Here is the input.
Amino acid sequence: MSLNIAIIPARGGSKRLPNKNILPLAGKPLITWTIDAALESQLFDMVLVSTDSQDIADIAINAGATVPFLRPAQLANDTATTNDVITHMIEWVELHYRRVSRVTLLQPTSPLRDANNIKEAMALYEMKNALAVISVCELEHPIQYCNRLSANLSMEGFLPTAANRRSQDLEPYYRLNGAIYIFDRKFVGKMSDIYSKGSIAYIMSKFKSVDIDDEFDFNMAEFIKNSCHHENKR
Here is the structure.
């Protein structure tokens, strides 16, 4: 029987927020929130972490994930892509175990995504007989209120007449939130093809869609985590 696996990519280097994948967030290393969610979902034959950092590897193993190796140097630099990292891990799994049929990519920078989100996305994948399910959230502000600025900062024509309406009267737009990518084995090695026929959106709330890139994002995620913990204890 083929494998259904989760892969959590966690590089050690981070320029905007050093060591972000293991920074303590609401009492746990950042990556641990994603590992816990994947394990709690009970959906996967293997929960794998791909990292070049021994510190991250130690924390991930302690949290219950499998870390079969440290990434080679060519997959640990700024030019390495998620596609490269996924392909490398799948090749290892299929060499040492058996063929993979389904991959779920869970980025550790989305700590507010929980086991229920993963289960709902997987249920959608199966219900729709999809080739991929990708998490999105509604834009925080209408895209119709956005435009480019010229060098002189003129606001002339910034808003088209059609967009000069109440926000609730405008069509909603959605963005990738980076939390969940579930996809068929056929996309391994060609992740750029994932946004195509057979791919379905899984809509998440903006409160669970914080994607940590810098200190502001980290503080926002910690505020939400601590607020939810406080509410749950009431």
